[in-house]
Structure formats: structure tokens, C-alpha cells
Design goal:
With 244 residues, the protein is of the alpha/beta class. It has 2 domains: 103 residues, Beta Barrel (Elongation Factor Tu (Ef-tu), domain 3), CATH 2.40.30; 129 residues, Rossmann fold, CATH 3.40.50.80. It is built from 6 helices and 12 strands. The chain has a 6-stranded antiparallel β-sheet. Strand 3 and strand 4 form a beta hairpin. The longest helix has 13 residues. The chain is globular. The termini are far apart. 37% of the residues are buried. The structure holds flavin-adenine dinucleotide. Flavin-adenine dinucleotide (FAD) binds next to strand 4 and strand 5.
């Protein structure tokens, strides 16, 4: 039985694009219709395979943007020199088909029973699995104390801004803008550093459960800062998207 379950999870299935939604000028959410989807947990990812007419195919991983129990959606940031993300964000249309396998990953996941306090730290599109966690927390009416620190280049590049602002109050949502910020901006500016973490991170004595996601170097830098603040390595979970 276990073998069947693993095979089922890891085999490719055809997904139809149910809807597309532009989140920012370079980021698109793609809702997928997956009749054989076994269900997923907040924080997991899937693999996408796209195949060109000449038979050339490429695979990439994408975090699942939706909460447990919701239809599967992914949110893709376009890298202009990329192979797959320009296709997914610019050419793919409702009704088109993709191959998908998953859900994948059992470590970078959260459920209300896992407790907290939760510290979520995102760089750029690294907010995607953290959004799934926040949605799951909200939908399950969890009261686990939660803070999100989200680093973006500019306000226009903040993904899911309206939804994240809606969580403000039940969770603490803080932004830092690294390249430009509007006049009168009241949030943080610049890269995540120790002084910023001193203001946002829970004290280590509270044994926070931490999820960090984004470009590889961002994730490694933030994890190091938290370990230096005496965070327990076993409670600091990381997901690296690649790139610089
Ligand atoms: C577990 C996991 C989950 C992921 N989830 C998401 C997600 O939710 N949303 C999302 O948009 N992406 C996500 N990614 C990244 C995604 O898999 C692709 O790497 C990304 O879409 C680029 O693919 P590409 O074919 O367009 O670029 P490629 O042709 O692979 O790369 C083009 C250039 O961009 C650089 N590059 C590759 N990846 C990145 C990156 N992440 N940041 C900056 N530069 C990069 C490469 O070094 C190269 O120079 C995830 C990656 C992993 C491993």
C-alpha cells in the first residue's frame, strides 16, 4: 500500500489551467485543475514539466500557494532570462495543460498542531509557501502567535499584498523594501539584518518555529542570523529557491 501511495504521488499527472491571475507585473498565480490530486499540506511543493512541440521538456519545482483542502495553485515569478518561468507567466492560458507531480516535501510544512510561535521570513517569491501557511492558519482559526517578515525590492513587487494586509491583526505582517520605497513609507527598508530581526523575531527563549524561504543566499543569511540569536537549528526550517 505504501509503495502504491508513493508511486501515485511521484508519478506525473495532467493538470488543466483553471485560471490565471496577475499578482504583480512579473508574477502570476496559476490555479490548476487536478482530478487525481491526493491533497497537500501548507508548505509543500510540486514539480511542473513543460514539453515543447519538438519534444524538449524541462522540469521546475514550485511551492503550492494554496492552503490544505483548497484547489492547487502555484505562483510563479518571471525571470527574464529563464527557460520555464517566462512561459508560465506569459504564454500559458486558461484551459492549457501541464504535467505535475506531487505533493513533495514533508519538512517545510506547518499545521496548527505544530504550534509556534511562528516566525515566517520571505524573500521575493519565497512568500509563496508562507502564504499557504498563513492561509491554512487563518482558515483553521488557529491562534498560534505569528509574525511574517517579507523582503521585496519595492512595494509594487509585494506579492499577495491585499491578502497579507488582511491577516494584519491576527498575525503581525511586516515588510522591508530593499531597492525603493514610497514617500512616507512606514515599514522597514534595506536587507534583513540583525537589527531588523531584533525588532521582529520572537525571543529565542520562546522556542519559535521558523520558516525561511526565498533565494538561496537570502535564506542562508537569515538562518545564520537567527542561529546567532540562539534559535534552535532543529526549529529553523528553510526552503531555497535557487539563484543568487
Ligand atoms: C522547492 C522549490 C520551490 C520553488 N517555488 C517557487 C515558487 O513558488 N515560485 C517561483 O517563482 N519559483 C519557485 N522556485 C524556483 C523555480 O523552481 C525556478 O527555479 C524558477 O522559476 C526559474 O526557472 P526558469 O526556468 O525560469 O529559470 P532558469 O532557466 O532555470 O534560470 C535562469 C537564470 O536565473 C537564475 N535563477 C534560477 N532560479 C532562480 C531564483 N529562484 N531566483 C533568482 N534567480 C534564479 C539561474 O541561476 C539562471 O541564471 C522554487 C524552487 C524550488 C527548489
Amino acid at each position: 500500500m505504501a509503495g502504491t501511495a508513493v508511486r501515485g504521488r511521484l508519478s506525473w499527472q495532467v493538470a488543466a489551467v483553471a485560471a490565471v491571475r496577475d499578482e504583480t507585473p512579473s508574477v502570476r498565480t496559476i490555479a490548476l485543475s487536478l482530478p487525481d490530486w491526493p491533497g497537500h499540506r501548507a508548505g509543500q511543493h510540486l514539480d511542473v514539466r513543460v514539453t515543447a512541440e519538438d519534444g524538449y521538456s524541462a522540469e521546475r519545482s514550485y511551492s503550492i500557494a494554496s492552503a490544505d483542502g483548497e484547489p492547487v495553485a502555484i505562483t510563479v515569478e518571471r525571470l527574464d532570462d529563464g527557460e520555464v518561468s517566462p512561459y508560465l507567466t506569459q504564454e500559458l492560458r486558461e484551459g492549457d495543460q501541464l504535467e505535475v507531480r506531487g505533493p513533495i516535501g514533508n519538512w517545510f510544512t506547518w499545521d496548527p498542531a505544530d504550534g509556534g510561535p511562528l516566525l515566517l521570513i520571505a524573500g521575493g517569491s519565497g512568500v509563496v509557501p508562507l502564504r499557504a501557511i498563513l492561509r491554512h492558519r487563518y482558515r483553521s482559526a488557529s491562534k498560534v502567535p505569528t509574525r511574517l517578515l517579507y523582503s521585496s525590492r519595492s512595494l509594487a513587487e509585494v506579492i499577495y499584498r491585499e491578502e497579507l494586509d488582511h491577516y494584519q491583526g491576527s498575525a503581525e505582517v511586516r515588510y522591508t523594501l530593499t531597492r525603493s520605497h514610497p514617500p512616507g513609507w512606514g515599514g522597514f527598508t534595506g536587507r534583513v539584518d540583525d537589527a531588523m530581526l531584533a525588532r521582529v523575531a520572537w525571543p529565542a527563549s520562546q522556542r519559535p518555529l521558523t520558516f525561511i524561504c526565498g533565494p538561496t543566499l537570502f535564506v542562508e543569511a537569515v538562518a545564520e542570523l537567527l542561529i546567532a540569536r540562539d534559535y534552535l537549528a532543529s526549529r529553523v526550517k528553510t526552503e531555497r529557491f535557487g539563484g543568487a
